[in-house]
Structure formats: C-alpha cells, structure tokens
Fold this protein.
Amino acid sequence: MAAETRQKAAVGVERETVAAVGRERKAVTAAGRERKTAAATETERNAVAATVQLRVKRQDGPGQPPYWETFAVPFRPGMNVISALLDIQRRPVNAGGEPVRAVAWESNCLEEVCGACSMRINGKARQACTALVDRLAQPIVLEPMGTFPVEKDLIVDRQRMFDGLLETEAWIPIDGTYALGAGPSISPRNQQEAYAYSTCMTCGVCMDACPNVSPASPYLGPYAMGQAHYFNLHPTGAMHKEARMDAVIGPGGVSGCGNSQNCVRSCPKGIPLTTAIARLNGAATKHALRRWLHG
Ligand code: SF4
Ligand code: FES
C-alpha cells in the first residue's frame, strides 16, 4: 500500500515537472516574440527617422492654380532643406512613387547672405539654406512667400523690393569718370548704427511677415524704410536726403507702417527695422514741414 502511495506521488511530481517545463517554454517563446516585435518596431522607427517627409506647395507657372505634393527623401545627418530639395531634383518621384516635375526653387550663396532661398518653412518665412532638417517638425511644409507673385513652385518675383529701393533712392550715385577726392568721413557712432542696416540681403522675409504689405497696398515695406534710414546716415548718401525723404513722406512711405513689429521679430539679420521707422518718422515730420514752408 505504502509502495503504491509512493508511486502515485512520484507520478504527480513528474506531471507537475512536465507542466512547469511547458509553462517555462511558453514564457520563453512569449519573451522571444516580444523581443522580435520590439526589434521590428525599432527597425520601423529607424526607417521613419531615416526618411525626410516633405509637403511642397507647387505651381506650374505664374497665375496657375497651386497644388500640394508630398515627397520622401533619405535622411543624412546635418542636411538642410536645400539638400532635401536637391534629392528631389535628382530623383523627381513623389511619395506615391509617381514620376513628377522636379520642384523649382532658388539658391545661391548657401550661407544666408544672398536671400535667394527665402521661402515659408513650416509656416514661417526664412532661408532654406540654414533650415536644418533635424530641427524641423515633419512633414516639413514648404511654400513660396505669400507677399510676392509666384513664378514657379517656391520661386517668387521679388522685383517689388528692388523697385522700392529705387523709389527711396537707396543708393549713392557716382559718376566715376573723374576723381572726386576723398568723400566726407563718417562718425564712428553713425558707422556703428549704419552697419546693422548694411547687412540687409533683400530676402523679403520682413515683407512676408508685415501685415501692411500686400499687392493692394502702396507701402514699400520695412526693408525699404531700413535702407532709406541707412542712406540718410551715410554722409554721402545724406546729400540726396531731400529726394529720399519725399518718398518716405509719400503714400508708400512710413505712414504705411502699422507698428505690428513683425518685421523686426522675423528679420534673419536682426536689423532694427522699427528703430529705423521711428527715426524716419521724426525726420518725415521735419521734412514735411520744410516742404510746406519752402515748397
Ligand atoms: S530687413 Fe531683414 S528681413 Fe527684411 S529684407 Fe532685409 S534682411 Fe531680409
Ligand atoms: S542661398 Fe543665399 S541665403 Fe540661402
């Protein structure tokens, strides 16, 4: 009887051991599956991170209707928006794998000096050459600046800005055919103030940010006011101050500024545009008074 009991107990232990081994195997298999799933998710994550998603507002030509297109290009450390656009140019295929017309954009210096690559990136106008991809939320949304007429895709016509410089006489006329001798010297104080305005690259970002600049408004824009003040500061430029101030008190001049301060906040060169506008406002009052008294 005792032997029978011992045999039953042994069978029980054996069964329990088999069940435990089964449970252990299941646990090992589940852990393996979990590891595999985690590895797959990691691979998927890396694949996503290794791709740059772009959403580009496109336009086939002036006056044509705009449309959106998405692209995916391989990520490389340190790449900027221009590198992503170059990838699209090399392989003009959209995210759906269809061949499309390569995206058109402008660039030149690639170091935020010429202003040619200005465009709206994730809703804000800035230079594409200094917009680093790994600091931008994806998909990266690229649009042409809204203030200017679109030529094609991300290229706009900034002629309006150069016309504004002509109107405010923002240059120093020189003849150049005979020696004029040394020009008047500039005080270190004026030189220091003028330097900031000399860095303007006519990029158009302040024009895009300003709510008072539009095709319907004659306002020449904050950059033109900055340049008018810059040339007033220069002793040679000041020789043409009267003609310049006529433009400043005209319909496209300082009275067009609504003091939103958007220009000074958006300028990539940190140019104190609102200071220039305030200085011009003071000079404009004096100039208007002189014109009224002396014609
Ligand atoms: S003032 Fe600044 S934002 Fe405006 S055009 Fe010049 S550099 Fe660009
Ligand atoms: S390419 Fe010149 S500012 Fe970007």
Q: What stands out?
A: The domain at 159-294 is CATH 1.10.1060.10 (Fumarate Reductase Iron-sulfur Protein; Chain B, domain 2). Residues 107-110, 112-117, 127, 129 surround FE2/S2 (inorganic) cluster (ligand 2) (CB under 6 Å). DSSP finds nine helices and seven strands in the chain.
